[in-house]
Specification:
3 helices; about 160 residues; about 0% strand; mainly alpha
Length: about 160
Amino acid sequence: MLPENFVKNLIDALLHVLCSILKLILLPFNLWVKAITRLAEQRENGFLNLSTITGLWPFFSFCKRLLIDFIFDAVAFLAYPVGVVVAIIVMIIGFTETNMFYTAGDVFLGFIISLIVIYIYPIFMALAHDFLVLMLLPIRKLIDYWRKPAQQLDIDYKQRE
């Protein structure tokens, strides 16, 4: 009753599922590496230097670069080193102050949970960045509309009666 290539399809499906799960598990680390790459490129290109900005509104361009491009990547980059140090410090403080309300196992469980949250934090930063960019899209379209010369605007001039 089984198809003749059932075993091959089963193995292919299993490998596909395992590879997809591995990609999802490694996604936060890949986002962290991409943030590092973008920060290095920003440094090489003088991204936050006002003298390299040649647009019409250099200060607004600087603010956009700082708030949207730099801050999100910097926070995502700092999440791993600073987060691990903070988690270790909190664990040490928790072990030194264990009392009847929580045990050493509770402190260690809190440490593991904080490491998991720190690991997936770059996903939260990427989602927040993308959400902010999507929220600013109508404003960017409006600015592009205002830049057009009057001849290119879709304005219907009708005679008043």
